[in-house]
Amino acid sequence: MNKFIIKKEKSYYEQAYESIKQMIFNKVFESGENISDTKLSEQFNISRSPIREALRSLEKEGLLIKDGKRFKVYEPTKEDVAELFECREALEFMAVRLAVERANDDELSELEMVLKKAENVLEKTDPDWDENIILINTQFHDLILKYSKNTRIQNQLNTLNSLIYFYRTINLSEKNRCDEIHAQHVEILEFMKRRDIKKASESMLKHIEDDLSHIQKLIDK
């Protein structure tokens, strides 16, 4: 719990927002759990106003659900994750097609460096490997989105970022699954480097469909 403390460099709202968000991602708050602004106010040693503002922001991102006068942590369902991933499929399918056309060689090299970082993390017995691999996985997808050079696609996906990250914490909780995802990322990049729009986009689509299937199985357990 020591990393979920309030410091004074940023506004109390910003710090409360980031801390609560990470507490959700790290399962300090479990799905369906009620969130008490009073308890958080005592824990962070700040007033309830910035905490309430942070809770409202997290509600807008989908990580919290308003339950009467209280907030509770988003609970994943097979139906909801299917809808979310349908959006991902449409947007990232198009993003990778555009990135194949528009990314220059240096930008593709940056993607390759990200995959090298992932490979290094997966090869080491790093106690924080799961958290690191989630961040690297996110970086890979974010760079493809960036190199699509389409701000409207970027803006659409940005509205889903928090829930996508939430599901990555579920999807990447097992080492074997991380290895499979890394192999799929390598394949996507190889097709991008060949400037093969059809195969790169098909590979991305299959990658996201596999993610969905795996997450739905875990939710079903």
Automatic annotation (TrEMBL):
Protein name (record): GntR family transcriptional regulator
Domain (HTH gntR-type) ranges: 10-76
Keyword flag Flavoprotein: no
PANTHER family named among the record's database cross-references: REGULATORY PROTEIN GNTR HTH, TRANSCRIPTIONAL REGULATOR, GNTR FAMILY
Lineage of the species this protein comes from: Bacteria, Bacillati, Bacillota, Clostridia, Eubacteriales
Pfam families: FCD, GntR
Domain of life of the native organism: Bacteria
GO MF term list: DNA binding; DNA-binding transcription factor activity
Transmembrane segments: none
Organism: Clostridium thailandense
Keyword Transcription among record annotations: yes
UniProt keywords, alphabetically: DNA-binding, Transcription, Transcription regulation
